[in-house]
Amino acid sequence: MRSSRRAFLTSAAAASGFLLGCGDDSSMVGGAAGAGGEGGSGAGGCNGADPFAGGELLRVLGFVDDGDIELDVPLNVGWDGRLFTDLSSLSADSLLTPNERFYIRTRYPDQLDPRAPWRVAVDGLVREPAELTLEQLLPLAGPRGAHLMECSGNTRAGSFGLLSAARWDGIPMADVLGLLQPRREATRVLVSGFDGHSVPSANGHSKPGASWIFSFDQLAQAFLATGMNGVPLPPDHGAPLRLLVPGWYGCTCIKWVDRLSLVDDAAPATSQMQEFASRTHQNGVPELAAQYAPATIDQAAMPVRVERWNTSSGALHRVVGILWGGSRITDALSIRLGEEPWTRVDVCPPPTTNATWTLWSHAWKPPRSGRYAIRMRIDDPSIVTKRLDSDYYLRTVQIDAT
Ligand SMILES: Nc1nc2c(c(=O)[nH]1)N[C@H]1C(S)=C(S)[C@@H](COP(=O)(O)O)O[C@H]1N2
Ligand SMILES: [Mo]
User: Fold this and answer.
1) Average pLDDT for the chain
2) What number does the ligand 1 atom closest to the CA of 192 have?
């Protein structure tokens, strides 16, 4: 058993009631406080009696098809540098990922000199090329709220651990753009980040030059992050400046931002946009940035652990998971365990934001031992769930005792 799992079980046993979906809401992210009851005794689920009240958590089951990549530790360097976040310990009071466990995709570039004064070059369709300094930018930074990030290449091999949530500080891109002097033809902005690594990527996938092109509208909610969970942005997460585009895949959230170029609708999609075309569900590989669909995260859901409990009415399992992505708030979530019928899931407290994830849980009595594929779906045909519906987030649990 991984040490973080062990630590989790210990704390689970120690903190009575901490696993209740409607437990202490004092640290809910995104202002989602208010819907829950008291943690622990008697409060129960939002929809009445809590079948786990007074029960004992016996063990936490993992998922059989996950890779065996080590979680919660930085691996490798440069482009191949990764940290996969262990999501199995998520609870109502740990909905923000601590910085040292926040997922990493590409580690601090070793060719970046941390002592040189940071400058953001401004060029392209501007009246005059310029440079922005940190002295100019940092006074514009403020709290920007909790937002999750997900790598568009978040896969089962990494236990879907390229997904994390933090509370950010930053400078609204609208304010940054207000400092520029765009020419009238400018319709878009190319955001580039430092990408000088002396060690090439082993699989050759990551090409140098991290950059993404956005229309001005697409950046309305975006910000240049300067802080993460109350401290300055850590080096691996793009210090001193990284773009954060709420609701978009991580590949658009350029780290170590050092250039803003104003471009027009004839600008070709950058090599990074082309590299990520299929992972962001584009139609083929768009030639122009203007043809590129917004790389938004569709509504999605997946289980993060299955718990086995001993309750007053016998053995009972609880599937705990997250709901995230999308742009409309919904709790119309259903689960299917193996060949059993689809059943509505308790999303409790109900979601109040799409900016970060929401916990859900589902009490379950497996009819027999064996393997169960766990599928989720959204019961609202007007909500797009392409990735979810392709079984991308399907996970499988092995039940040895019912
Ligand atoms: N300069 C630069 N920015 C980058 C990348 C990169 O390789 N270089 N990777 C992108 C990808 S694919 C993701 S998922 C996010 C990861 O951000 P994180 O490591 O802070 O989680 O950064 C994005 N920004
Ligand atoms: Mo990514």
Assistant:
1) 89
2) 1
